[in-house]
Design a protein that fits this description.
The chain is of the alpha/beta class. The protein is 41% helix and 14% strand.
Length: 367
């Protein structure tokens, strides 16, 4: 049964027999006091991959963002500016900052002009911006304009916080026509060739590389403060020994197989994109990334497409678009898919095409 609902993009599953053994699953101590063996080495390897100066492991991005906004947004005069389509986990992590009176606003999705105008207003008011974005938007597949955002933040004495969960393990450094996703899998900071001087990268490893823990990476002085002052580290446990073992296995597999698997993902994504276009369906992203999102003309059309896929033993998703008030059909590709799975999915979709096709084209052209 072809399943296009899993975000385990590289296909890593880390069965217990593949992991190094551990003597105790958890230490019974908070992260600030002690971490499982191998945690610091894993954090260093992930930081090097991402392009940061230092790194800290967390059980999840929700734990991580709680500390980021507590420490990085703490200086007086900070204002947090969220991209309007930011993933909810980062917003939940900022709730503590809101309780402490730190103002939080949103700016239109990927709209650098509107953000620049708001940052200028903040500077005149003596405010320091903390700009929060998804490195790779899972709804439209567009990359955040990180070079422009980093310049905006730096000029105003602020920082950029990047949720890179969808990009880590998928995008990497030195993208080219022969390697459109780049190499290494370090995420969007590596993709743009940026330093971590005024950026903080947060990412879960539970997507592309399949390990249930998160990494926080950035400038060494910022990470030192978070490691010492972050209330999550003081009051909760670090990732378990099993999760750290899975993370170390993920890094080893990515080093040995990652670029080959990313090339496979590109081939599968390009096949899907080509076949969708023959049906009059247009993927949102300009890149052959593993999350392929198609805007549908109506909820009725989206439900019909999903029903056709389900009736042929194929699982997919209907999601909300970040760009207009239309539902989207989302297919997540992993390295475990085969070309035949792609062909089977598009054949099932072909049976529903023609429904609302004219309205679909008109609304896409207007979007």
């Amino acid at each position: 049964m072809p399943d296009f609902t899993s975000a385990l993009y590289l296909g890593f599953t880390h069965p217990s027999a593949s992991l190094s053994p551990w003597r105790a699953l958890t230490l019974g101590r908070p992260a600030a006091l002690e971490e499982p063996t191998g945690s610091r080495a894993l954090a260093r390897e992930l930081t090097q991959l991402i392009g940061g100066e230092a790194g800290i492991l967390y059980p999840s991005t929700l734990h991580l963002f709680r500390d980021v906004f507590q420490v990085v947004a703490a200086p007086k005069g900070t204002i947090i500016l969220f991209d309007a389509a930011s993933y909810p986990i980062a917003r939940w992590g900022a709730e503590g900052a809101a309780v402490n009176g730190i103002p939080i606003e949103t700016f239109p999705h990927r709209d650098v002009v509107a953000l620049e105008r708001r940052v200028r207003q903040a500077r005149r008011a003596g405010q320091r911006p903390l700009i929060v974005v998804d490195g790779l938007c899972p709804s439209c597949g567009r990359l955040a304009p990180l070079p422009a955002l980093a310049r905006l933040a730096a000029d105003a004495g602020g920082s950029v916080v990047i949720d890179d969960t969808q990009a880590l393990g998928v995008l990497g450094r030195e993208p080219s026509p022969t390697a459109p996703l780049g190499i290494g899998g370090g995420g969007t900071l590596a993709w743009h060739g940026l330093s971590s001087r005024n950026t903080v990268v947060a990412a879960s490893l539970a997507k592309a590389v399949g390990a249930p823990l998160a990494i926080l990476s950035g400038a060494a002085d910022t990470l030192t403060r978070i490691a010492c002052e972050g209330e999550t580290r003081i009051h909760t446990s670090p990732p378990s020994a099993a999760n750290v073992a899975a993370g170390r296995n993920a890094i080893a597999l990515n080093r040995a197989q990652g670029d080959h698997l990313r090339a496979r993902l590109v081939r599968l994504a390009e096949q899907l994109r080509k076949e969708l276009r023959t049906l009059g369906l247009h993927p949102r992203s300009e890149l052959p990334i593993p999350m392929q999102v198609v805007a549908m003309p109506s909820l009725r059309a989206a439900e019909a497409a999903l029903a056709s896929l389900d009736g042929n033993g194929i699982r997919a998703l209907v999601t909300r678009s970040c760009r207009e008030d239309l539902p989207s059909l989302t297919l997540l590709i992993t390295a475990r898919h085969a070309p035949a799975d792609i062909a089977r999915a598009t054949a099932a979709l072909a049976r529903t095409q023609g429904v609302d096709s004219y309205a679909h084209r008109r609304r896409l052209e207007a979007a």
